[in-house]
Amino acid sequence: MHVLGIDAGGTKTLCLLADERGLILSQGRGPGANLQTSGELEVEKVLHHVMELALGDSETRPTSICLGIAGVDREDDAQTVGAIMRRIGRGSHVLVVNDALIALVAGAGSTPGIVIISGTGSISYGRNRRGYAARAGGWGHMVGDEGSGYWIGRQALAAVVREVDGRGPQTCLTGDVLAHFHVSNAAGLVRTVHIRDVPRPNVATLGPIVQRARDRGDAVAAQILERAAEELVLAAQSVASRLEMRGDAFPFILAGGVFRVVPWLVEELERRLVEVAPRCQVRLLAEEPAVGAVSLALAEAQGGADVPRYK
Fold first, then answer.
1. Dihedral angle sign, alpha carbons of residues 211, 213, 218, 223
2. What count of other Cβ atoms lies within 10 Å of the Cβ of residue 201?
3. Alpha-carbon gap, residue 123 to 117, rounded angstroms
4. Phi, psi torsion values for 140, nearest 5 degrees
5. Which residues are registered as beta bridge partners of 96?
6. Lowest-confidence range among 153-162, 233-242, 298-307?
7. b/e for 70-98, b at 16 or more Cβ within 10 A?
8. How far, in Å, are 21, 36, 55, 61, 74 from residue 25 at the CA level?
9. Among 146, 157, 182, 208, which residue's beta carbon has the most beta carbons within 10 A?
10. What is the pLDDT of residues 154-179, one digit of tens each?
11. 3-state DSSP call for residue 32?
């Protein structure tokens, strides 16, 4: 028996082929596959591509496939993604879940816990001991995603143009951001962040710039990261409260690329989350979220995965 576990994120998509023991045999990587920003055709193309790469030249047909992708909590998106997977996963049992769930499973297995994701976007998602789930955030970069890589980058860009206009304080972010994008003045940022084909990932790369500016004592950069930490903790606190977990012992799993490149956020969330749930543990996700998708695909193949219901 073989299964596929897929993590479709805003920046990259990873597909893992595993055997009945969960041993990873091969993988396929591709660009991000977000339905709202890429569209149905592009998402299908990316998913089909990474599945082909993982399967290679073998005649293996996976018994089950688990896809973790943002947006499937919304009925219309769920129907669209479900239709895609029925086309490209024909002959396999297909399970489509929120990408936050596969990250939680990768970090906490089947036990209760809360995952805080800060990548291109952001979301907090949890599951309690009674099998109920709750989420906060994940509304997309136009109306939410506070504390994400894109949000941090957007705040840094705003600080630059505010200084240039005389509407905001001086900040070393101005020189750092211009140098990062290889432009000589703020006007050159317009083409970089508005006209290029992948503006969101471009903006989301600014996290390390903000971290370094904060380390040099820049007050504007420090304020941006303080707000990012506050927003991520607020989302986690909302989930913990609605699931009645604040008095329980469970892990907070920190997942997403921002935590790897902005280490101050990890330290700050470790400090703040203990105030949310005093018995919690806080740890970085060591595995790829796609490993959680493999676990769910195996469970689906062996009689049905236990997907928590929203409270």
1. negative
2. 18
3. 5
4. 95, 160
5. 67
6. 298-307
7. bbbbeeebbebbeebbeebbeebbbbbbb
8. 11, 31, 9, 14, 33
9. 146
10. 999 999 999 999 999 999 999 999 99
11. coil
